[in-house]
Specification:
Blueprint (H helix, E strand, L loop, with lengths): L10 H18 L10 H26 L2 H7 L15 H9 L4 H9 L1 H14 L2
Length: about 130
């Protein structure tokens, strides 16, 4: 696996990766392969579940402000490890919710109505 960032991806390998990703998504949502659902419908349902998780789970965790808050924001004491930084949950959430800073998202979490509106708007836009 060393140097996998530099591998060239052919069209055949890209198709296999996309098929594997869809297989993973279907398994997570417990959709059997015999169900006649298109990939678009499956991805739409996955987006809906993601918005439910973000509004119902992540909001209360961030408002609580304990250890879970530290884990999701990635604010730990000590030295950084060598190599590329791993992606934090907040970074992925910031890209999903659209342009904005992580500090803006943390401020929006405090206001429940604003947080629900942000998640609902992101889901409606299909991001």
């Amino acid at each position: 696996m060393y140097g996998c960032e530099a591998w060239t991806i052919s069209k055949q390998i890209q198709n296999k990766l996309e098929a594997t990703e869809m297989w993973f998504v279907r398994r997570m949502l417990r959709i059997p392969w015999t169900a006649k659902k298109t990939n678009g419908r499956v991805l739409n349902e996955a987006n809906k579940r993601r918005s439910q998780v973000n509004s119902c789970v992540l909001g209360p965790v961030m408002r609580r402000g304990k250890l879970e808050h530290l884990v999701t924001t990635g604010k730990f004491e000590g030295k950084r490890s060598r190599g590329r930084q791993s992606e934090k949950i907040m970074d992925g959430l910031a890209t999903w919710l659209g342009p904005g800073k992580v500090s803006d998202i943390l401020a929006a979490v405090k206001d429940r109505d604003l947080w629900r509106d942000m998640i609902a708007n992101a889901y409606k836009q299909g991001t």
